[in-house]
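Subject: Sanity check before I submit

Could someone independently write out the structure tokens for this chain? I want to compare against mine line by line before I put it in a report. The sequence has 407 residues.
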Amino acid sequence: MNSLVLLVLLIPAVGGSLILSDYDDIYAQSTDFQLPSLSFNNPYSDMPTNMQNSLSELGDIDEEVDSQVNEIIKPTFQNPLEKSETKDNDEGSPANQETEFGIGGNDLDTPTPTPTPATTSGSGGGAGDVYVVDYSNIRIQKFDTQGDFISKWGAKGKADGQFGVPHGVDVDKDGNVYVVDMDNNNVQKFDSEGNFLFKWGSMGTGDGQFMHPHTIKLDSVGNSYVSDMANFNIQKFDSEGNFLFKWGSMGTGDGQFNAPEGVAIDSLDNIYVTDTDNNNVQKFDSEGNFISKWGITGENEGQFKKPAGLDIDKNDNIYVVDAGNSRIQKFDTEGNFLSAWGSKGPGNGQLASPHDVAVDSDGNVYVVEQLNYRVQKFDSNGEFLSTWGSQGSNNDQFLDPHSIVVS
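---
Independent answer below. Compare away.
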């Protein structure tokens, strides 16, 4: 399928403007209105950047658009495989089972999640908490490292503590949580219980502005780095959200990006960025100066097909989500390939549209999967340990889990 014209909406409420969306063998992702994830050949799941401006203007007519999208699109594609197992071993799923996945399964009639105060159940608090961005449920969920639910917060909106489309997440040394909202074009800071502290950012191309922010990562002194897909850059801020500088432009050269997605920082505060559409990882110093890069399009060791999130362990090993190849690849800081694991499917150790990865202080690796609606936990060698989550909007359930961090 080379090109598919998916959706044409004539909407009187916005002056009869015509919105034409052209998808070319990629995953589409919702923004203001909840468009189901559409699976094509390449299992990568973020909305094309050229849809951002049009979709962000539809906030006042969500219900009308939702209804039209549901009628036009939902009957066309196969529903995804229902998932029934969480922490128990999935003995009924062969290790190498291949499964084709269809539409993302988001229920367009799902009620908006309850906003703060956070709902609490189970133990938690302190080091070792796991925060998951539950993209289509428009909330953050908090778990312990065993996958036991602790709390959640978030609701759809533009006010403090609300989200348009939450995407990236990170935690500072004090346990405060930073969330990138790619539709409201800002970063919000919360305490570890989900209480709003402050925010920064607005839509635009200027310093401190965003057009499609995706990921945030904090360095050793509390500075934050935010990737912006539509501005093709990385912006650096201090701990109060004050703009410091930025780097990057559209292109395929050193220090250029075609879709900057994941950000990770090593023990020397070097910055690593996955460039999804250029299928590589680029390395910079803390001032944004280019150091090196690795990766080309492919399925072999050290090659990528739509790399997404990445994280670094205490030994500076780098774990990259190779989304299109349904696997995790592990490298050293020079980009030398170390190992890989994963295959396409619903079983333990298999992956379906993985999007982000996080490493805890013990070297355990956590992976969020959009189409298996779960988190999987592995040891540093990729051996399966446990899993939690299922499709839905209750506690311990997900609709499009997108990003993950361990405090």
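---
OP: Matches mine. For the report I'm noting this point. Residues 1-45, 47-126 have pLDDT under 50 and may be disordered.
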